Backbone:
């Protein structure tokens, strides 16, 4: 694990010998958290302990993460955060299909070779149901962006029934797929296959309704 020094130079800007950039502060904190979760379990690990193991202050931890559970999801957060951009650049004429394609593109960021450590070691770390709840919350955080996108395509208000229905149905299906993927263990395939299987019937039904 790379620990950030206590000087004024952020870990993000420190360069290792040979010119290789050092891991970011967020990654250092994630590494520290993973070590502690494995050693003593998720429930017994505090934010202060994570910060101390990483060599940073508690305040620095909260510069990068809003809560302890957030430290598990660097890659997922990046993928979910890409959703509005994927929607903005979509040329798919159907709003429903555009959302489906964007969710599939985000899911492709997680393949079996890059399973988040919180998923791979969930049982050992004692994370349990909080893992799935945390994932579902992250996916559903994009509800407003998806509803606004659908509203922009249909001329309705984002808070109207149809944009809200499309956002809730498609994001809910994607979150459910991630939950199943988590609990499938070492036998799991690519996340995108789970998300596709969950989204296909939902998107087909919604798309037929929108025609």
Residues:
């Amino acid at each position: 694990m790379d620990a950030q020094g206590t000087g004024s130079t952020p870990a993000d800007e420190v360069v290792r010998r040979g010119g290789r950039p050092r891991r970011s502060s967020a990654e250092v904190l994630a590494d520290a958290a993973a070590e502690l979760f494995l050693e003593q379990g998720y429930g017994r690990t505090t934010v202060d302990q994570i910060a101390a193991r990483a060599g940073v202050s508690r305040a620095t931890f909260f510069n990068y993460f809003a809560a302890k559970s957030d430290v598990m999801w660097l890659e997922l957060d990046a993928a979910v955060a890409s959703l509005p951009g994927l929607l903005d650049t979509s040329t798919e004429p159907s709003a429903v299909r555009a959302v489906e394609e964007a969710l599939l593109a985000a899911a492709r960021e997680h393949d079996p070779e890059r399973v988040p450590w919180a998923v791979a070691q969930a049982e050992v770390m004692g994370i349990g149901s909080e893992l799935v709840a945390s994932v579902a919350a992250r996916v559903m955080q994009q509800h407003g962006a998806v509803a606004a996108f659908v509203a922009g395509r249909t001329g309705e208000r984002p808070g109207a029934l149809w944009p809200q229905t499309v956002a809730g149905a498609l994001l809910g299906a994607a979150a459910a797929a991630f939950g199943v993927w988590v609990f499938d263990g070492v036998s799991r395939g690519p996340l995108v296959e789970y998300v596709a299987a969950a989204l296909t019937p939902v998107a087909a039904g919604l798309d037929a309704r929108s025609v």
